[in-house]
Request: fold
Amino acid sequence: MTISFARGIPGPDLLPVDELADCAQAALRADGRTILSYGSTLGYQPLREWIGERHGVEPGRVIVTNGSLQAFHLVLSTLEPGRVLVERPTYDRPRRILAAEGRELGEVPLDEDGLNVDELEGVYADGDRLLYTIPTFQNPTGVALSKERRQRLAAFAGERGLRVLEDDPYGLVRFEGAPLPTLLELEGGQHVLYSSSFSKTVAPGLRVGYLIVPPALAVELEPLVASTYITPALLAQATVHEFFRRGLFEPNLERVCGLLRERRDAMLEALDRELAGRASWNRPDGGYFLWLELADGADSTELLGVASEAGVTFVPGPDFGGQANSLRLAFSFVSPTEIDDGVTRLARLVAPVPAAVELG
Reply:
């Protein structure tokens, strides 16, 4: 059996199947004539109101999307030609989307405190259209932007008029430590756009995410959204709203975080036992991933080939813009027992040479 550290998705035991089945049935019975027909282009209104209240914004600023990646596409559609700034490394799908659009990338390195704002100030140039950032439990590294850097980044965006897309699907998946303010909260939402989804906290198959934008941008996006899909999948959105209305979200989040904490701990324990002195890795306070670096000169893409034959997979760091010797390990999809076995298999293939952690 192949053990996948490549799949950054919740394991089957994290999904609240019975609760969602009841919520879907209740939503249909209560509001079926609305949610089975064409509806509001920008999303199921009760859910928009719930999201708006949660974030302290007017519901008119909320667009409910088909996952947060669609929010990324919508934001890109509003940009004039020009460079897009991203973290290095960063989520591979936006990198591919930007490359397909022919967008030039300006890359800003990460370290253990997240995006390096000093480097951002050096990289930034007039004409840069957007900074795409995942500040909390980042994909792929699992690092979180420090509070001091969040404050500096929010101020920088306001001073330079730089539009920032804060992608935050992992922010609530915290195992320890105090929650950090979002960039949206710190900047006020004039230049910071905020996207998230319920894929990591409820269920990815529902495909319910959202985007918070300034009111004028919501008006600008409405005809584009309408021409893309006329009306969103209201049944899924109403199901999620019913899940919230019943007070199921917070208990489910606590359960999910508990299960993921066990998996994170199992991976850290196995790495400490099997790879100490032969690789280096970080210790995330939440999320789905950690970042591992092999010795200089090692190649994670080559390692993946032999690891796959040994029955364990991961994603090489270069897929995210990382160095050749880096790789992402996802602990979200597999059990603690599988994690232990998978790290043991992987360790047999790693050369016995120490490496220094250097996320930048």
User: Anything to note?
Assistant: The first helix runs from residue 17 to 35.
